[in-house]
Amino acid sequence: MKVYSVINIDIVKSRKIKDRANIQQMIKQYFSTLNLKYKDVLVAPITFTLGDEWQLVLRKTNKSYELVNEIKKFLLSKKIEIYCGIGVGSISTNESNDTREMDGEAFIHARKAITMAKTNNRFYNKEIHTKYCRVILIGNPKYIMNTNVSNSYDVAQMEVAVTIEDELNIVDIINALIQNNEMIESKFTEKQIEVINLYEELGTYNEIQKLYPNMSKSSTSHKLTASNYFLTVYNKQIIANLIKVYTKLLMES
Fold it and tell me: In which domain of life is the source organism classified (predicted)?
C-alpha cells in the first residue's frame, strides 16, 4: 500500500487581513518557489482550494512537518498565522497534477485534522492540549507494543523508549512532540527569532560574528539556548523519524 501525506493549511482570521488580494498573490509566488524546491516530495503543485485554504500532497511523508514549518516561518515574517491539518494514509485515486482530483483516506484525515486545529474550545478538543498549537496530525492508530518495532528499527532511530505497560499510539507521540514544539516557538521573542534566522542562514556563531561584530558568540549562544531553540530542532528530527516509522508500519499493514 502506498502512503501519502495530505496537508491542509488555512490562515487564522483571514477575513481581517487587509489587502487580501495582494497577500494571496505573494503567497502564490512563494508557493512557486516551494514547488521547485520540493518537486521530488510533492505529488502535485500546491493548490488553493477553499478561499484562503491550500492543500499539499506529499509522497515523502516524513517531510510533512518540515514543510509546514517552512511555510509557517515565511508567513509569520509577514505577521500571518496559520492552522494546519496533516493527514497520513492511502489515496483511493490515481496521482494527479491537481490535488482536487485526488481523494482517499489521507484526505479524510487531513480534513478532520484542520477542523480540530481550528477548534479553540479545549473542552471539546481532546487531541490538542495547549492553546499555543494550531498543528495536528491524524492517521489510523499504530501501537508500538503491538509491533516488532525493536526487530525492524534501531532504538535510536525510534527516538522513544517505551517504559510503561500501556500501548503507545505513534500518532499520539508525534502530536505530543508537535505540541511541545509549537508551544516553545510561540514564546520566541522578536530578538530571539532574529538570532535564530541568522543562525539558520549562516550556520555558525563565527559567521554571525563576522557579519555582525556587535553580536558576540556568547551572546548568540545565550539567546539560542534561552529560547530552547535546540530542543525544537531535536524535536523536529524525532518527528520526522517517527513519521517515517509510522509510514512503514502503515505500508506493511
Answer: Bacteria
Domain ranges of the chain: 4-188+227-252
Q: Which pTM was predicted?
A: 0.89
- Cβ–Cβ < 8 Å for 28, 52: no
Angle subtended at Cα 28 by Cα 229 and Cα 2, rounded to the nearest 5 degrees:
70
The yes/no answer on whether domain 4-188+227-252 falls in CATH 3.30.70.270 is yes
Q: List all residues 6 or more positions away from 10 whose beta carbon is below 8 Å from its beta carbon.
A: 52, 53, 54, 82, 83, 84, 114, 118
Q: Is 46 helix (H, G, I), strand (E, B) or coil?
A: coil
The half-sphere exposure of 76 on its side-chain side, counting CA atoms within 13 A, is 15
Which pLDDT tens digit goes with each residue over 98-134? Answer: 999 999 999 999 999 999 999 865 554 667 777 878 9
Phi-psi region of 79 (alpha: psi -120 to 50; beta: other; left: phi over 0): left
Give CA separation, 149 vs 4, 136, 146, 153, 249, in Å.
21, 24, 9, 6, 9
- What would the grid cell of residue 107 be? 484526505
pLDDT for 122 equals 59
Please report which helix (H) or strand (E) contains residue 84, including its range: strand 82-89
